[in-house]
Amino acid sequence: MKRFTFRLERLRELRERAEREQAAVLGAAMRDEQRERDELHRAQSEFDRIGEQAGEAAVRATLPAGTLGNLGLARDAAGVRIDAAAEAVKQAQVRVEEEQGRYGERRRDRKVVEMLKEKRFDTWKEDVSRAEQKDIDDVALRRRIPNEEKP
Known about the structure:
91% helix
């Protein structure tokens, strides 16, 4: 019997490759999101540290107004970094969601072609099985006919 061939194999391969490439893009987006989350955590830690330092300094001694002003400016700058990092995290989350959607589409496209391949393979197997059964029946019929003709 002839081998099973799927005429859309090249399309299946292309869709599989597109899915793998999209998975890589999604992975990069997820790593970027994690990096942004880490940066937000660092900014929050810095903000907390500056607040603790200002509190400790105020308790230990009276500070000149300029020093208190500088501590306030440092804390404000840390707050700005927190806001910027939080916005970057939101943007990274949006990108991850978009890439997940694209990955889902690529995965679905590949699965559609693979399901078609499976159906065609099952049909091919049935056809081969019928052809083999027909050959077996023909052989059996040929063996029986000569035996019936002998007296």
